[in-house]
Amino acid sequence: MKRRVVSFLITAGLVLAAFAAAAPTVSSQQDLVADLSDHEIAITTGFTGAELLLFGAIEGEGQIVVTVTGPRQSMTVRRKQRVAGIWINTASMRFQNAPSFYAVAATGSLDDIDPDVRARQEMGLGHLSLRPVLRDRDTPQAEIKAFREGLIRNQVRHGLYAAGTGRISVLSDRLFRTRVSFPANVVTGIYTVSVYYIRNGSPVHAQTTPLRVSKIGVGAYVFRFAHTNSAAYGVFAIVIAILAGWLAAAIFRKV
Amino acid sequence: MHVYLPIAEISVNVFLVLGMGGMIGVLSGVFGVGGGFLMTPLLIFMGVPPAVSVATSANQIVASSVSGVIAHWRRGNVDFKMGLVLLVGGFFGSSAGVALFAVLRRFGQIDLVINLSYVIFLGTIGLLMLHESVRAILRSRKPTGRRSKLHQHNWLHGLPLKMRFRRSKLYISALLPLGIGFSVGVLTALMGVGGGFVMVPAMIYLLGMPTGVVVGTSLFQIIFVTANVTFLQALNTQTVDVVLAITLLVGAVIGAQFGTQIGAKLKGEQLRSLLALMVLGVCIKLAVDLVATPVDLYSLDFHVIHE
């Protein structure tokens, strides 16, 4: 009986020690800890968008900035012009590595942060690194700026770039949290969630967490089928349609 | 209740899509047209990318044409010989159309061409139909008793490669149906329509086919042309959304039941003038969109990211 109690105490001690070592200790070494409520967004058949909670703790005085960037892709922006009364796309510019999704949140004003830092870490829509592809680089800066702003406006309209700076709420100067919402039309892939701890205008600590957005279920299957085996998918679509049409005709006859 | 469309990559309200399918179904039941000319613009309006709208409409029309043709076939209203000749033209036309679609998309002009084609075709057909049906209504009010000839003879009847089409009671050049089939095939690929609204008037006014076999024959060849477009778009652009097509279809099947009942109660000329007004309505809406200053002069191309 005694031996049992002793062994229990030893085990409990070990567990406690292990727990203490694993627990996120906010020391001077680790000024910032943060995590997401979920590391995966599953696009199911009933998907209408998702909201994630980002939370964490900080040690000491400073500002927190959170950025979420979607997979980068090249995007073509087109500009319309009135030709003989109707609006026609007459000019275009292709941007490489434009984020397919972007959101930023901060505890204070982003304007307090050093512009170089903002540009480097892409803090704010105006500081996104949107560079035209090589062949479009000779275009005058004013033109590039107009196309860049056009791209941002379109993405904001589609809900893929968050319009303003989100709020981060801070509890007793230590705990913080913010919500990031994703619309139904998000693209799949690996997203990057970055949390910056900023003191005197420059980051003293940063943490990056990946977030996976993927399709699951029937939708994922249909999408994969359509893209990996296009010919079979085409035949499948036709067969489904013919069967459905035939079935409808059969039902009609009964009625 | 929302459903996520895997190819269009947007989430839509199921009941909205079912309702839209239902409305198209009512139209097809009442007027005997596929309703693709309304479907594609409505899908685009819902936020489905134009490329996906066009390809998916084609897929949905395969189904509605199959169920339509079965009913006409039972009544013996299909001229298979004419259908096959139209089909050969349609096959080449739709293949050329899909290729043209890809080129236009690369140059960023596909939306413009889709809109322009709609305005031109809907405008022309709508006006022609309205003119014809109003005249028919007026004529029926004061009967003259004189029976008109089966069809008018003109230079089109002088073309070579003459063929006899027994069901249609015609002896005409095969080049005519081939040409019509080709043109309508191009339209199917570009606009996501079955092309019945172009095909039917062309068969009546250009070929001089008897009205009874026109709808059945055009439906017969539409099945194959839309199937060809579905296949080629699935292969080349991966823009056929089966989930969207099936949802539309369910609505269309239910809608068509009501449509046929309504259609049976209306007179032919009245039906045609109603359809003409509807066609003109869509045409005017699209024309305004072309001319009105857009919300944003800058737009982004739709494309799917590959994982």
TrEMBL record, chain A:
Q: Which residues form the signal peptide?
A: 1-22
For this protein, the record's Pfam families field holds:
Alph_Pro_TM
Q: What are the UniProt keywords, alphabetically? A: Membrane, Signal, Transmembrane, Transmembrane helix
Q: Which InterPro entries match?
A: CHP02186-rel_TM
Q: What residues form the membrane-spanning segments?
A: 231-252
Q: What is this protein called?
A: TIGR02186 family protein
Record the organism. Answer: Thalassobaculum fulvum
State the organism's lineage: Bacteria, Pseudomonadati, Pseudomonadota, Alphaproteobacteria, Rhodospirillales
From TrEMBL, chain B:
User: Its principal location?
Assistant: membrane
InterPro entries xrefs: TM_pro_TauE-like, TSUP/Inactive_protease-like
Listed under GO cellular component are: plasma membrane
UniProt key word Lipid metabolism: no
Task: Provide the alphabetized UniProt keywords.
Answer: Cell membrane, Membrane, Transmembrane, Transmembrane helix
Please give the Pfam families that the UniProt record associates with this protein: TauE
Recorded superkingdom: Bacteria
Q: Which residues cross the membrane?
A: 12-39, 51-71, 83-104, 116-138, 170-191, 203-227, 239-259
Topology in the lipid bilayer is annotated as:
Multi-pass membrane protein
What is its subcellular localisation? Cell membrane; Membrane
- UniProt similarity note: Belongs to the 4-toluene sulfonate uptake permease (TSUP) (TC 2.A.102) family.
State the protein's name. Probable membrane transporter protein
Organism, by scientific name, is Thalassobaculum fulvum
Q: Give the taxonomic lineage as stored in the record.
A: Bacteria, Pseudomonadati, Pseudomonadota, Alphaproteobacteria, Rhodospirillales
